[in-house]
Structure formats: C-alpha cells, structure tokens
Amino acid sequence: MRKLIILFGFVFGNLASLFGQYCTNGGPSSNADSNVESVELTGVSGGINHVGCPSQIGVEVYLNESTTLSAGSNYSIQVDFGTCGGNYAGAGSVWIDFDQSASFTQSEIIGTWVGTPPALPVVFNFSVPNNAHNGTTRMRVTQQEAATLPLNPCASFQWGSVMDFGIEIINGLDCDAYAGDDLANAIEVSSLPYYDTVDLAFCYGNQNLVYDSPDIFYKLILNPTMQQISVNTCGSDFDTYITVLNPQGSVITYNDDHEICAPSSFLNFNVGDLGFVYLIVEGWGNESGMAHVEITSTYADINPLEQHKINFYPNPVHEIVNISEEVDFIEIRDLLGQAKIVLTNRTDQVNVSQLTPGIYTLHFLTHGKAHSKIFVKV
Question: Kind and range of the H or E element at 51?
Fold first, then answer.
C-alpha cells in the first residue's frame, strides 16, 4: 500500500536544511514554577552535577557539563523533577542520543517520571547499548507541567524546563569509516552499473527530513553519454524510500512503493545537464535494515551519420586506439556495461593495454554529440 508523502520534507530548498540538527527552539515560555532542580550522572570520566534553579526559558544547553559513558556498561542517573516556584503536577523524561542522529527517539529514553513536586529525586538505572556510536552526543532532560507521557523532546510549552548535556561514548561503534551519512560525505559513484549493500541499522543517522529513519547519501557523477538513470532498492529487507536531489539540494523526483518490488522503491529520471545528482535511500517511517541499492543508466542514441565522420584505428587493437580528431570525453565499457577506462581531458588517443582481450565499446563526446564504436582488444 502506498504511503502518504510527508510534504514538509520537500519544502527545504538548500543543502543546509538537509543536515540533522538538534531541536533547540522549544522548551518553556515561562521561568515560573515547575523546573528540573538537579541532574547528577557520573561516568567513566567526568561527571554532571547540575543545579537547575533559578529556572530559564527555552532549551538550556550545557554541553560543557559532560561525562563519558562506555558502550555495554550500566549507569545510574539521579534527577530531581521539582519546582522553582509553585507545586504543580507534570511529567519528565531523559533521553540520550545513542546513535548521534541529532534526534531523541522513544528507544533512547533512559527514564520517565510522573508526579507533583516536591518529591524525592528519582534514580534511573540504564545500560548504554553495545551499538551506541563512539563520539560526542547529547543527553536531554525535560520536565513539562500538566503533561502526560510520552513527552515530545522538541515540544514548546509554558512551564517546565529542557536541558541538554554533553555525553561522550567510548567502546561502541566506530562510524568514521562509514561513508554516506550526509551530503558532505556522500558516496561518490563515477561509473555505472553500481551495486551496494548496506545495513542502515548501524552508523547511519537521520539527516534527510522526509522520514525519521536512517538514510544513506550517494553522489552520482554524470557524464554526457548518460541519458536516463534507474535507481532501485528491490530486494531490501525493509520498506524503503528514494529521493533524488539536484546539486542545489532541491528534489528532482522520489519514490516510495513501486509496483515492481513494493515495499521497495524504483524510479527513473532523465539526466539533463546537471553534472551530478544526490541519491538518498532511507526507510519509510523509522524503518531500517539491509538495503540493496542498484544504479544503472541508458545512454544517448548514436546518430549513424555522425559515426562516419570520425574514425578510429587500429581495430583489433593491442595497445593504443587512435581517433581521427581530439574528443572531449572518452569512456570504454565492457559487454556488461561496466566502465573500464574514463578520460575527461581532450585527447585523440587512449591506451588500452591494461584491458583483458575481448570486445569493448568506445563511447566519446565531441562537438556536443555522443558517439559509440565497438572494437576488439587482442
């Protein structure tokens, strides 16, 4: 069944809007009454020992107050959900962003509270997941007057408090080697066909704003011989969603469920003169898992009249292919369509000595037109 598109994900027209950022525009509008009075957490090194009163409006950010936690270990945090004024019932929650997705999810809650101050401080015992991501992240402590659980970590309200503290994770997943987590680190794809299998459940966060799921970014480098690009995630073990962005970060096209392989995704789009595009693969909703990504292309039709105007020799060839004039771009592909040699500088020669014997196609661009020749490497 097709899902309704979340339209707000497409109204952001620049690259900066596609990077995940912690919500810091919410919190209380009044500094009266309900407020977190204290937060205490001791880790492997360092510690948080925060006193909350006098209360403040908005999201209070105390990243200089931090502690180090080790993945797979157990800890206790003490929080005094209290008041800096009158005593009114409310609710409280504590989150740690273990996957560094710049968002606080239900699975990252380490403790909740419901009550009326004054009350004794509460102690939450929690474990740091083994797959928590190494590095710096945040803990959010929220108290909201007249609220019920579950709390929204990004909510705006009148009385209460929202506090962010620094957390350093060690002995967890080292995600530095995982390319493709955002636009700036998109996996570069320079030749087609391209195949990738990636587990989005680990080391990938929510950087794209369509859904809350983890996502992976590819940067497809286009060449003038490409005509129509096909992208699919058929065979993935979760419900996928594909978005295509132009170099400015605006949406070109997208697909949720495709009739060929629903709930996986499949789409085609024309290349034009973009130079490159971004391809984003993510889950529907908050789904994640093993994604199978396939990117292929069709190529521009060859005008037979143009073929006769440019010659190349010898054929068969052992080492050097000569072209009767300099051309702007050369790509040699095998019978499977895989690019073996790509030259982007103007030239009238190409060295094919490293190719294994067989049949190849020489694609080249000159005077704004694409050409194709078949040759035999001996």
Answer: strand 45-51
